[in-house]
Specification:
The structure holds two protein chains of two kinds. By secondary structure, chain A is of the alpha/beta class. Chain A is built from ten helices and ten strands. By secondary structure, chain B is an all-alpha fold. Chain B has one domain: MetI-like (MetI-like fold). The model of chain B has no long low-confidence stretch (mean pLDDT 88). The chains are: A alpha/beta, B mainly alpha.
Chain lengths: 268, 277
């Protein structure tokens, strides 16, 4: 089992004009977090709480100002295929068709054309797009594009999937379908996952654990175990799970937790 | 309050009168009419001798001149031979400017050192009219083909370099980060993400370069050549053969329009994804 560890991680950016003037702005502070490969940890918090910065640190796109991030004890020193990122706007390559987008990480590894096409076709089938391999990216719907993006990340055979609001740009109906899809595909892949989301409902439904970040600077304020994803994987319908009293209670509790202090901030 | 679902009880909306359909004239038709009017005015001016035929031959005379250029030629070469000489120069120069311009643009777009070295050269070259440095090029490389190809290539270079560097700098950060997170090395990011992403911009640069090169070509041939469309026009002007001068101008314009259309077609075929980025 793989483990991604954040130990006393802090992140500072150069201060923006009007936000503290000269010097540095503390974006994340004192982050201690462990994510195992059998988990899907949902990170949730208000705007400015540093959710995406946390994901960028895990991906290795940026380096922490203090503390360490390690994958199975090895410090993370930059991006790598062991931590594949799925982006909100899918970041697919429009000059490639759906199949070649999925085969992209295989090409990077020097896998021969025939083999990478076969593996891409298998992944296309796995994400329910067996017939869409030859289609151009712009011919696909938002949900289909995200499936291709997830399949591309899986082609890299990562130890962790880093999901940066992957369902954020989808309409409500597609989003609900994609939530269940995401859950199943993550479970099949055996990779751990960190999910950044603005949706409390999505975090509760998908996360084995929910981590709440408070803003300015982003600090880890709560970690909550949730088991609703197991219910969905065991066959319960998503709508039934969302309608359960426990789900509603936890939703209300998380809403209160995330928005506590927001009213005072607005008044100020 | 209850909501009725009985659609038969809904009030009928009176049908609107069909709008008076008057289809607007297509742009192509407006352009064709404009050209026809201009040629008509030209024909009238020639027919009523408003301008001396030595200075302004009639459209018919120009068409006859084009026919004669195709069949018998002018100054020891047919129109095809003059055109062939000009196109050889322009495509030779285009190949040279692409070979130099794309790597230079990549260097400017991806490297601080590359930008530091090449930016002043491009900024010096860009505003210079090619005819200003043509005499120097002739002194350096002689009056043969090399001087003309060099000067045309120099006029094409800035647009190819600048469009390549703009394309490289405009690459989506998410596209680059996605590749890095999927295991791409720096070289792979450049070859598999940055370069393909910059292709639409590079093709636009090549199209602009072709226009600049065509302008320079004619000017270069006016000054120092023994064949080519520009040379043909210059020779005809010296003997006041204005129908050949105008025929040459018309051919230049038609070839430029044709090259532009071909370039656009290639762009559409090579980068159909460009509008969908």
């Amino acid at each position: 089992m793989s483990i991604l560890t954040f130990r006393n991680v802090a992140l500072r950016y150069p201060a923006r004009p009007g936000r503290g003037g000269a010097g540095e702005e503390l974006v994340l502070d004192g982050i201690n977090l462990q994510v195992a490969s059998d988990e899907l940890v949902a990170i949730i918090g208000r705007s400015g709480s540093g959710k995406t910065s946390l994901l960028n640190l895990a991906a290795g796109f940026i380096a922490p100002s203090a503390g360490t991030i390690a994958l199975d004890g090895e410090p993370v020193r930059g991006p790598g295929a062991d931590r594949a990122v799925v982006f909100q706007d899918d970041a697919l390559y429009p000059w490639l068709d759906a199949r070649d987008n999925i085969a992209f990480p295989l090409k990077l590894r020097g896998i021969p054309l025939a083999e990478r096409r076969a593996r891409a076709d298998a992944l296309l089938a796995r994400v329910g797009l067996a017939e869409a391999g030859d289609r151009r990216i712009w011919e696909l719907s938002g949900g289909m594009r995200q499936r291709v993006g997830i399949a591309r990340a899986l082609a890299a055979e990562p130890r962790f999937l880093l999901l940066d609001e992957p369902l954020g740009a989808l309409d409500a109906l597609t989003r609900t379908r994609m939530q269940e899809f995401l859950l199943r595909i993550k479970a099949e892949s055996g990779a751990g996952a960190i999910l950044i989301t603005h949706s409390i409902e999505e975090a509760l439904l998908l996360g084995t654990r929910i981590v709440v970040l408070s803003p300015n600077p982003g600090r880890l304020t709560a970690e909550i175990e949730a088991g609703f994803n197991a219910e969905v994987l065991n066959g319960a319908s998503v709508s039934a799970v969302k309608a359960s009293p426990l789900f509603k209670r936890m939703h209300a509790g998380l809403t209160g937790l995330i928005h506590s202090g927001a009213d005072e901030e607005l008044a100020a | 309050m209850t909501l009725s679902t009985d659609v038969t009880s809904l009030p009928e909306v009176p049908a609107k009168d069909p709008p008076c359909e008057r289809r607007p004239l297509p742009v192509a038709a407006i352009s064709a009419i404009t050209v026809a009017v201009l040629v008509g005015l030209w024909a009238l001016a020639a027919a009523y001798a408003l301008v001396s035929p030595v200075f302004l031959p009639s459209p018919r005379q120009v068409v006859v001149a084009i026919y004669n250029l195709v069949v018998t030629g002018f100054v020891d070469a047919t129109l095809a031979e003059h055109l062939g000489a000009s196109l050889t120069r322009i495509f030779g120069a285009l190949a040279a400017s692409i070979a130099i311009g794309i790597p230079a643009g990549l260097a400017i777009g991806t490297s601080r050192i590359g930008r530091g070295i090449l930016d002043p050269v491009v900024e010096f070259l860009r505003p210079l009219p090619p005819l200003a440095y043509l005499p120097l090029i002739i002194i350096w490389v002689g009056i043969g083909e090399a001087s003309k190809i060099t000067v045309i290539a120099l006029s094409m270079l800035p647009s190819i370099i600048l469009s390549t560097s703009a394309g490289v700098r405009g690459v989506s950060k998410d596209h680059v980060n996605a590749a890095r997170s999927l295991g791409a090395s720096r070289r792979q990011v450049l070859s598999d993400v940055v370069l393909p992403s910059a292709v639409p911009s590079i093709l636009t640069g090549i199209r602009i370069a072709l226009g600049a090169g065509w302008t320079t070509l004619v000017a270069a041939e006016l000054v120092a050549a023994t064949s080519g469309i520009g040379f043909m026009i210059q020779s005809a002007a010296q003997f006041l053969v204005t129908d050949v001068v105008i025929a040459g101008i018309v051919v230049i314009a038609l070839v430029a329009i044709l090259l532009e259309a071909i370039a656009r077609q290639i762009e559409r075929r090579l980068v159909p994804w460009a509008p969908h980025r």
